[in-house]
């Protein structure tokens, strides 16, 4: 199964070009769609999920023409939107059972088995009788995944799922997601580099409605091997370094600014070689337009 997006474009009525000729081939497995706020990720996710129209282009999933055969797509789609409401005074088990009824699973026994399996899969079985209003952000997100899996989807879309989760909850969420990629096309839209680093076998970075980079994260990193150097500097020196080097990231390390630069040769000057990180790739694409050659 493969999701193929070809030349997709969308301009909103206020003139914002949210998607500009997006083309992506997304195979079974975890696919990370990475980009800053406003990049166009939600517009793309909602278009794939048949919730809004594109102006041009096509999307196919196996034999389904997504933009035309909306009902067919919805039968095989699981979708966890950025924001979703939950009934607060009802337990996870009861609400999941209710959703399963709505999705047409009419036999009680079959439904109970399915609900139990989904609660186990998302690590919520122990808390199944608690009211949802007492759930943490991470538990709510895992519940969101459980409901998205009721119809055993072939395509699962999760939009910014880890925003606002603490590191422990984020980790639990990763564990739940990583099992799903074995038989499903899972698209994870996020502005958090770690989400992609931990989970995804393929990725794309989008910015201002365009794909800036796509590929396998490990291969993308391989292209930066032996080209990233780091140095801890004083804050007031940053401007000069930016003039003299291709600075691709700057962050505080133990309270001091540390810069990463990209260079084909050893720059000397107190720099030392460092392992390229996906953050380096991301920041260079998003903030610096450093025109790195990845192929
Ligand atoms: P992301 O999910 O990456 O944050 P979005 O797809 O939500 O990005 O937004 C992409 C761009 O389109 C942004 O500039 C946003 O302000 C704009 N946008 C999103 N939805 C609408 C809308 N319904 N009408 C007009 N502009 C919109």
TrEMBL record:
It holds the Pfam family ABC_tran. Transmembrane segments: none annotated. Coiled coil: none annotated. Keywords: ATP-binding, Nucleotide-binding, Transport. PROSITE patterns: ABC_TRANSPORTER_1, ABC_TRANSPORTER_2. It comes from the Bacteria. Residues 3-233 form the ABC transporter domain. InterPro entries: AAA+_ATPase, ABC_transporter-like_ATP-bd, ABC_transporter-like_CS, P-loop_NTPase. GO terms for molecular function: ATP binding. Belongs to the ABC transporter superfamily. This is ABC transporter ATP-binding protein. It comes from Flaviramulus aquimarinus.
């Amino acid at each position: 199964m493969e999701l193929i997006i070809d030349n997709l474009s969308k301009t909103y009525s206020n003139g914002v070009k949210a998607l500009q000729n997006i083309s992506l081939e997304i195979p079974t497995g975890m696919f990370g769609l990475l980009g800053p706020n406003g990049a166009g990720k939600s517009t793309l996710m909602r278009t794939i999920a048949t919730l809004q129209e594109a102006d041009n282009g096509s999307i196919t999933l196996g034999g389904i023409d997504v933009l035309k055969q909306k009902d067919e797509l919805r039968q095989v789609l699981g979708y966890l939107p950025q924001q979703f409401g939950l009934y607060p005074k009802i337990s996870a088990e009861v609400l999941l059972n209710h959703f399963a009824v709505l999705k047409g699973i009419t036999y009680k026994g079959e439904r109970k088995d399915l609900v139990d399996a989904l609660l186990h899969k998302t690590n919520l079985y122990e808390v199944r009788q608690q009211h949802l209003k007492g759930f943490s952000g991470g538990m709510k997100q895992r519940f969101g995944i459980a409901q998205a899996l009721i119809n055993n989807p072939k395509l699962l879309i999760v939009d910014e799922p880890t925003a606002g989760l603490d590191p422990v909850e984020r980790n639990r969420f990763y564990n739940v997601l990583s099992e799903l990629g074995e038989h499903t096309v899972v698209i994870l839209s996020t502005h958090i580099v770690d989400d992609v680093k931990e989970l995804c076998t393929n990725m794309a970075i989008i910015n201002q409605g365009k794909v800036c980079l796509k590929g396998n994260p490990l291969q993308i990193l391989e292209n930066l091997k032996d080209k990233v150097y780091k140095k801890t500097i004083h804050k007031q020196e940053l401007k000069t370094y930016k003039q003299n080097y291709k600075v691709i990231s700057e962050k505080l390390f133990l309270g001091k600014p540390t810069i990463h630069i990209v260079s084909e040769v050893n720059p000397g000057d107190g720099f030392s070689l460092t392992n390229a990180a996906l953050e380096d790739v991301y920041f260079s694409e998003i903030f610096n337009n450093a025109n790195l050659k990845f192929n």
